[in-house]
Design a protein that fits this description.
single chain; alpha/beta; five-stranded mixed β-sheet
């Protein structure tokens, strides 16, 4: 049986239909021309709006069309688009997950003049076989936070090697304070802390990078390579630098409580701290110092870009000369002092510009990190290619820090090897479904609706489509398309809304369903609604006078609709429903409704 759906017929629906067919209306209402550039907003339009305003002022002749994704897995979706060769002209992602694919799909930017304004250290970190394909727009800097005011009052100097750190920790303990607390609420924190200490020694060397590549491929082990690092981590534990919070609270709470209330001097939290005052009962200022190496020769900070930008290689094809010229203008402005200021704003005191001529006042939180960047002592946070194992490895390290399960460095090494081997052994089994063809956005929305309706036991589902319009991005809708190929958890999550954990069920007649479908989802209450896709069990036609149970995504309906039709909010994960549904079906097609 063929799948059917009906869409709202307002002005927005026409625009969405044009977008899906490849001919679109721009955000300013004008018609799209052949030189219009597609910009993937990636759920970041609001953050990038000051830069986009600057771009409009500087190059008013450049036409942009925004393609929105604000779903559950932004990084995963950007690379799903890359694999399907369906990326926007201006491409954005948070991780460089596949260097070979980046070379194949993106323009090599290394020959363009604006590149000379970026720090050499920055370029060295993103160079791929002599080319530059994805450029970070800024860096969030991570190190070890400390109570700067308390340090100054006590006359304590920041340590420059481990011997000085150890001696300082003894003084701190004599004052009745904890030397350092570590955030362990999320297992990514302990994972990063251990790997960051490894980077003060061998992990960032040629040999270390080779080990990482071989380990992830199953051709090397942690045993025989990590013993010295684990011994060094144990020394951090022994001197009191990695003291776990018994309540396992959020990193921001730790800074406020332990540093702000002067319970501890240091805090290792691999998360952004968007302030310079610790909080708590006082007004103490915080500082950030590097991870201290044993001999002090390699005291390092970590960085994580908010995103990377690149340009689709399609723009190098004949006929796209103007589009490529405009795209280079955009990146040239993006990597200018004016562009960096507009993009970065004043959101976070730990954000560092990627420009070589960027100057920071000496009292800036990341002034020392900028110097370290110039000296090559700032390295990327370990994440890419470790996504499937870092949580479990981090759990082992967390148990070590908390003194649980008899865990120690030697056992952590064994767990690293066991976890990686287990992952590699089931890597081929990670796919639980297959898509026979590429889905449109509407077809994908219908598929996710089938999964929710099947799990909820309803007659139908109204699914909002998260197409971009007028600066608004919809988290409570389907934003990404399903592409042809195998489906695993990563792919399935790219299809789900950015809001999860609950859904709603309402009772309404077929006529009322059609009325809501026609009106769309006016999230902002401004008369410019998002479109709905209606999917029903077995593609049944809804009769106007009959009453049905209809499911909605959480926050995927207006307050008025919820009140009118007695919305019953129910606990349940759309992501979990979709995975179960896909596992049961084994194969899905755009032309079939498998919900019976």
């Amino acid at each position: 049986m063929n799948r059917k759906w009906i869409r709202g017929l307002g002005v927005l629906s026409v625009a969405v239909g044009l977008l899906l067919s490849g001919c679109a209306v721009l955000s300013n209402g004008s018609a799209r021309n052949d030189n219009t550039l597609l910009w993937g907003t990636w759920g970041s339009y609001e953050r990038h709006e000051p830069f986009l305003n600057l771009l409009q002022e500087t190059y008013p002749e450049i036409d942009l069309e925004f393609v929105s994704y604000a779903g559950a897995n932004r990084t995963g979706y950007s690379w799903a688009q890359m694999r399907a060769d369906d990326i926007p002209d201006i491409f954005m992602t948070s991780q460089i997950l596949d260097e070979e694919l980046a070379k194949e799909r993106l323009v090599d930017l290394s020959g363009y003049p604006f590149i000379s304004d970026l720090s050499t250290a920055v370029l060295d970190q993103v160079e791929i076989d002599g080319g530059l394909y994805l450029l970070p727009v800024d860096y969030s800097i991570y190190g070890i936070f400390y109570n700067k005011t308390l340090m100054e009052e006590k006359g304590w100097e920041l340590p420059s090697d481990f011997g000085e750190l150890e001696a300082l920790c003894e003084e701190i303990k004599e004052e009745g304070l904890i030397p350092g607390v570590i955030a362990t609420q999320l297992t990514g924190g302990p994972f990063s802390a251990v790997f960051n200490l490894a980077k003060t020694d061998w992990l960032t060397t040629v040999e270390g990078r080779a080990w990482e590549r071989d380990f992830l491929a199953g051709n090397a082990t942690a045993k025989g390579n990590w013993e010295d690092t684990m011994a060094y981590v144990q020394r951090y534990i022994d001197i009191g630098m990695f003291t776990a919070d018994p309540e396992d609270r959020d990193h921001d709470v730790l800074v406020k409580d332990y540093l702000g209330n002067r319970k501890a001097v240091f805090c290792t939290a691999v998360h952004a701290i968007n302030r310079t005052v610790a909080g708590g009962e006082g007004t103490d200022e915080i500082g950030i110092m590097p991870y201290i190496s044993e001999d002090g020769s390699k005291n390092i900070y970590m960085y994580s870009p908010s995103c990377y930008f690149g340009i689709s290689k399609r723009l190098t094809e004949p006929g796209n000369e103007k589009k490529l010229e405009d795209a280079i203008k955009i990146l040239s402005l993006l990597y200018s002092p004016e562009g960096q200021e507009a993009l970065m704003g004043n959101d976070s005191p730990i954000t560092l510009s990627v420009l070589s001529n960027s100057e920071l006042p000496e009292d800036s939180l990341v002034h020392d990190a900028q110097k370290a960047m110039q000296e090559g002592r700032v390295f990327p946070m370990t994440y890419a290619r470790w996504e499937n194992t870092l949580s479990d490895m981090g759990q082992a390290f967390k148990e070590w820090f908390r003194g649980e399960e008899g865990m120690d460095g030697e056992q952590c090494i064994a767990r690293m090897d066991a976890i990686e081997q287990e992952y590699l052994s089931r890597a081929g089994e990670s796919y639980f479904c297959k898509s026979t063809d590429d889905f449109t956005l509407e077809e994908t929305a219908a598929l996710v609706g089938e999964a929710l309706g099947s799990a909820a036991g309803t007659d139908g589902v109204l699914v909002p489509i998260g197409a971009f319009h007028d600066g608004v991005e919809l988290k409570a809708g389907v934003n990404g398309k399903l592409y042809k190929g195998n489906i695993d958890v990563e792919v399935a999550n790219t299809l789900c809304p950015g809001i999860d954990g609950e859904y709603a069920v309402m009772k309404m007649t077929g006529a009322q369903v059609k009325e809501i479908l026609q009106a769309g989802f006016d999230m902002e209450g401004n008369g410019n609604p998002f479109s709905y896709v209606l999917v029903t069990r077995g593609d049944m036609e809804l009769e106007d006078g009959q009453t049905y149970q209809i499911a909605f995504f959480m926050e995927g309906y207006t307050e008025e609709v919820g009140q009118t039709y007695g919305a019953e909010v129910i606990k349940g994960s759309v992501r979990g429903f979709l995975r179960t549904y896909l596992e049961e079906k084994g194969e899905v097609s755009p032309s079939k409704n498998l919900w019976k």
